[in-house]
Amino acid sequence: MPVRNGASWNNMISGYVRTGFYNDATALFIEMWSLGIEISGYVIASLLTAFGRSRTMVKEGFQIHSLVLKNGLFSDVFVSTSLLHFYGSYGLLPGAQKLLEEMPEKNVVSWTSLMVGYSDDGDNKTVLDLYQRMREEGVCCNQNTFTKAITSCTALDDKFLGFQVLGHVVKSGFEDNISVANSLVSMFGSFGDVKDATYVFHLMDEHDMVSWNSMIAAYANNLLCEESFGCFRLMRLDHGEINPITLSTLISVCGNPESLMWGRGIHGVVVKMGLDSNTCICNTLITMYSDSGRYKDAEDLFHGMKERDLISWNSIMAGYVSEGRSLDALTVLANLLRMGKMVNYVSFTSALAACSHEELLTEGRIIHAIVVMFGLHENLIVGNALVTMYGKCCMTSEAMQVFSKMPQRELVTWNALIGGYAENKEPEKAIETYKLMREWGEPTNYITMISILGACTAPSDLLKLGMPLHAHMVVTGFETEEYVKNSLITMYANCGDLTCSRYIFDELVIKTAATWNAMVAANAHHGYGEEALKLLLEMQRTKVDFDQFSLSAALAVSADLACLEEGKQLHNLAIKLGFDSYQYVTNCAMDMYGKCGELSDVLKMLPEPNMRTRLSWNILISSFARHGLFQKARETFHEMLKHDCRPDHVTFVSLLSACSHGGLVDEGLAYFTQMTSDFGVPAGIEHCVCIVDLLGRAGRLADAEAFITRMPVTPNDFIWRSLLAACWIHGNMNMGKKAAERLLDTDPSDDSAYVLYSNVCAASGKWQDVQNVRLKMESNSIKKKPACSWVKSRDQVSTFGIGDKSHPQFEQIHIKLMELKEKVKAAGYVPDTSFALQDTDEEQKEQNLWNHSERLALAYGLISTPEGSALRIFKNLRVCVDFDKLLLLTGGSINSIRKSIYIATLIYTHLFIFLFEPDMVGFLRMKSNTTYLMAQPTFCSWKNRKVLRGGT
Questions:
Q1: Which of 321, 269, 313, 271 is nearest to 295 (CA)?
Q2: Which of 34, 223, 736, 870 is deepest in the core (most CB within 10 A)?
Q3: Cα–Cα distance, 920 to 939 (Å, whole number)
Q4: Cα(855)–Cα(820) distance, rounded to whole angstroms?
Q5: For strand 788-793 and strand 870-875, is the pairing parallel, antiparallel, or unpaired?
Q6: H-type helices in 239-325, by residue range?
């Protein structure tokens, strides 16, 4: 151009800015300035727009600010508004706020620019404060102002203020504006007012992509999956186009087994449209598969992604945490740090959640140190995660320290601290924190109440804390909350008052699945397994759908009752409803099969070793131990270590139990030492009981007594009962007396102390002492728990006591018993009357043995069930040792599992399963038509507890 004026330069600079050539625009401006061409507000505004968009030219922006002041251009509202927007773009909000206050003239764009800056920074409260000031100063709002105000009401979940803004929108005539209407649809959807969102949507004259996506999101936010997909179908018919946001929104509503089919369909659409390389969509798919329990699919998708952003890494970390794969989650964080990738507060929040167990406390402390190093320790969400992590790791004092140092707190923070006290059974501190919370004027919600109620777990808590809290719930109105009612049911049950739990439950007009689950858990907690299963049946009849928690609770009850038939039905139902994808439902099913003696089913369901959670490993070790496969239990433990799965206290309970029943004394003692020294698992009372039982079974009573004196935990009734039982077996009357006295000191009304000590005296032939013990029981009004056995036949349960003649088929039962007696005597059976603890002659002792309840149940089972069918007999107390020998001589293999199921085959062509406390373990098989017994080298707990070495 032969001649250029100011407009020429301005237009050229503006062109560079519009096309993103910000450095060229800056260079041209410097040339223009050096030539002395007058600088206008137009070119300044263009440059400030460029500097704001580049995100890297903050220094240049400061220089332009100085130039503006030097040339007196700040009074130009266009220039000052551009400056304000520039400061907001870089998050320099105090500077932007100061600029607004100094501006001689402000217009709607000025106010809205600052609102946008605060909105982008997440400070929605300030956005609404600015909106209020703007209205007070009489500045008319535009569509962007209303959009930001409505979005802020949504983010703050302030429904009342949202309706006030709506009134201003209608008054200003912006309700027909498509941008404002889209924001209203999103707001109503977020508030749960889907009806209002639909009303606004249908009133709109036109719908753009954002309109449809907002309406789909409104349905999705309220978990209305079918409605979301119905709207999606209409969108494709009416609008035609869809974008990644549409698909991501639809995927987000499919994160459960019921709607996973829809999610897979959308995944197919994603692939068909060539969007499977879209990082945002892949991230949403990872979350969907993780939330629906399809962790392997989520992992495969993550590893198949061509590009991953931080959200991708955070999503897979969150998935690992949900699956219980804490070490894998921490490995992801380690890889991120090793690769120098950017991490944020979400990364550390997931990592801290992975450490929410006392066995990972060391790792949690390391993460805490890294958080401090990254300067995120003052982040509110990270602080909440730290409080939660320390609470779950039983470090409530550390949780309190983090809490007290947090620069700001929210409701979640207080709830996390109260929840930590509740989990660690510190109800007084939980109540104290709640009082402090109220004194500081902090708002509370139903989660606060649930946490406080969860702190009350002992009968002593009921009158002092539980019932006053219930009264407080009534006064504050929280009792009407569904989840609070469920927590009240649980609280009363935990405190020993199942009657009140049932009363609250019965008074509820509307019972959700969570309510039924609470009542089922309450009954299971008190040992009323049959009542719990009846409640589940009643729940089904009232048309309340089972959820994953219902099924896992039902499977756990079936496992405790060893109800294989009911357990199988529940497992089939879980598969039918799609809940088998939930790992904890699968684990409950595996545990049920293990406790019911179906080891083959456990092995069928077991994931591949590299995919097993710690719970899966624990169930497998426990199942092997209960079946008498003690070496397999040990091998599984070592395989678990090879796959870098860290054992916990449950692992060692099963392992030590296997060593105890397998006679592996040295191995058991070595594992007990390694548990604390190598794996950092603190010794609990369960581990100590196993060691006392281990030494007692082996006859090392002095060692058992010495171990009790140096135990890291205070001995309880289980410890003394185990020692007393060993004294009975090995005839040590002096130590037995001391153990009985300590057991009675723990609980003077414990009938087992009297019975076991009486047995010790009887086994030693001290019949006068036996009589003295029985007289003392009578004087103290203590009655021995009667032994009984029961068997299920044709959906009917028949129960038998010792010498019971009340059964309608007693004559047939007696005949079958005599027939069985003749056959086993012909096979070489000699009755072992050493455990017939009555001062009578041998003939009477033998007769008493044949009147035991388990033999009556066996005879009834043999005459009432078809040939070849499974026969399951249960007993509430220890089984007679002579009965063990009877089973061995009638053929079969016996394997012990906890809860004590013994399995024997080839008894009158039945499969015989017996439930009792472990007493005799061995894998023995009788050869056909002979009396030879073949024994593998294992521990067989006969009277002298000798180890059988292989042979004939």
A1: 321
A2: 736
A3: 8
A4: 10
A5: antiparallel
A6: 244-252, 260-272, 279-291, 295-304, 310-323
How far is it, in rounded angstroms, from Cα 510 to Cα 489?
Answer: 15
Q: What share of the chain is helix, strand, coil (3-state, %, to 5)?
A: 65, 5, 30
- Tokens linked to 411: 């409701």
**Left if phi > 0, otherwise alpha if psi is -120 to 50, otherwise beta: which for 663?**
left
431, two tokens? 């109540």
> CA 298 from chain center: how many Å?
19
Query: Any idea which residue has 């058992």 for tokens?
Result: 704
Classified as helix, coil or strand, 909 is coil
Pairing of strands 910-915, 870-875: parallel
pLDDT one-digit tens code per residue, 507-516: 888 888 889 9
Q: How far is 295 from 299, CA to CA, in rounded Å? A: 6
Q: Who contacts 867 (Cβ-Cβ below 8 Å, separation ≥6)?
A: 908, 909, 910
Listed in sequence order, the residues at least 6 apart from 544 whose beta carbon sits closer than 8 Å to its beta carbon are 511, 512, 513, 516
Place of tokens 């129960």: 799
- pLDDT at residue 396, as a whole number: 92
| Residue count (the chain) | 952
Contact 873, 831 (CB under 8 A): no
Residue whose token pair is 């199988």: 568
Encode 67-82: b = buried (16+ Cβ within 10 Å), e = exposed. ebeeeebbebbbbbbb
User: 32: exposed, middle or buried (C-beta count within 10 Å: 0-12, 13-18, 19+)?
Assistant: buried
Question: Distance between CA 910 and CA 933 in Å, rounded?
Answer: 19
Tokens 């946490």, located at residue:
451
Q: Give the number of other CB atoms < 10 A from CB of residue 201.
A: 21
Whether 802 contacts 787, CB under 8 Å: yes
Residue 803 and residue 789 in contact, taking contact as beta carbons nearer than 8 Å: no
Burial class of residue 901, CB neighbours in 10 A (0-12, 13-18, 19+): buried
Q: Which residue has the tokens 């709640």?
A: 434
pLDDT in tens, 514-523: 899 899 988 8
Tokens standing for residue 201: 């949507």
Are residues 436 and 449 in contact, defined by beta-carbon separation less than 8 angstroms? no
Any idea of the CA torsion for 703, 707, 709, 711, to the nearest 10 degrees?
A: 180
Residues 789-831: pLDDT tens digits?
777 777 677 788 777 778 888 888 888 888 877 777 777 766 6
